[in-house]
Design a protein that fits this description.
The protein has helices at residues 41-49, 51-62, 84-96; strands at 8-12, 19-24, 29-34, 74-75, 79-80. The chain is an alpha+beta fold and 99 residues long. It has two domains: 1-49, no CATH class; 54-99, no CATH class. The strands form two sheets. It has a three-stranded antiparallel sheet, with helices on one face. Strands 4-5 form a two-stranded antiparallel sheet. Helix 2 (51-62) packs across helix 3. Bound molecules: zinc ion. Zinc ion (ZN) is lined by residues 66-67, 70, 73, 81, 83, 85-86.
């Protein structure tokens, strides 16, 4: 799934306490989101800025081996496991779905 190239950098802009997310696209920088000032503003900004890196990690995790304890993707009566592989696959699907 193509997206704006990174690095995505969370940095406060101006003199206010509302950090903006900036995407460094090489020759220009544009803000893609802002968060309201509050106790989670900085951590929310950092989480979003990490999205491209997390996406790559989820893709890699989704391709890794299931834990032996989850029977390689199935549990007991055929229920899908909930190990890290499934969680990475779900997160990758959510991030790359077409809406
Ligand atoms: Zn599993």
């Amino acid at each position: 799934m193509p997206h704006t190239k990174g690095d995505w950098i969370a940095e406060p802009i101006g003199n206010c306490d509302m950090p903006f997310y900036s995407i460094n696209t090489g020759d220009c920088t544009k803000d893609i989101a802002d968060v309201n000032a509050g106790p989670y503003a900085t951590t929310n900004a950092c989480l979003i800025a990490a999205a491209p890196t997390l996406l790559i990690a989820c893709k890699q995790g989704a391709m890794s081996s299931h834990h032996l304890s989850c029977s390689h993707g199935k549990k007991g009566s055929g229920n899908i496991c909930d190990c890290h592989v499934k969680q990475c696959a779900d997160a990758y699907f959510e991030a790359t779905k077409q809406i």
